[in-house]
Amino acid sequence: MMGSLPEREEEGAMADDDEATVSLELRQGYQFLVDFGMHGVPGLLMDEPGPLGAGQGPNASRMLAAAIANCLSAMIARSRRQPPS
């Protein structure tokens, strides 16, 4: 069930009460299709490297590393845009 998001003080900022949901669909073996539930954003195929999986997509460790790198990079970019106090 989708609802409207609350208004935000800053464009693109995520409020504490915003809800993020994802769904996973097992395709085969260790392959999962991740649906972020965002209009216009395609699903992402995740897979484990061999010998467990076929290595057809990033695994959870790589996704976690990318998420952390994205957070840190966004924080650095934001701090560079703010005028000095």
Distance between the termini: 43 Å
Low-confidence stretches: 1-9
The helicity comes to: 25-40%
H/I helix tally? 1
Report the C-alpha radius of gyration, rounded.
Answer: 17 Å
Task: Characterize the biggest β-sheet.
Answer: 3 strands, antiparallel
Structural class: alpha+beta
Name the average pLDDT.
85
Outline type: elongated
Read across the widest sheet, the strand sequence of neighbours is: 1-2-3
Topology as H/E string? EEEH
Strand content: 15-25%
Annotation, overall tally of beta strands: 3
Q: Could you walk me through the main structural features you see in this protein, from its secondary elements to its overall organization?
A:
The chain has 85 residues and is an alpha+beta fold. It has a domain at 23-81. It is 26% helix and 16% strand. It has a three-stranded antiparallel beta sheet, with no helix packed on it. It is elongated, with a radius of gyration of 17 Å. The termini are far apart. 4% of the residues are buried. Residues 1-9 have low confidence and may be disordered.
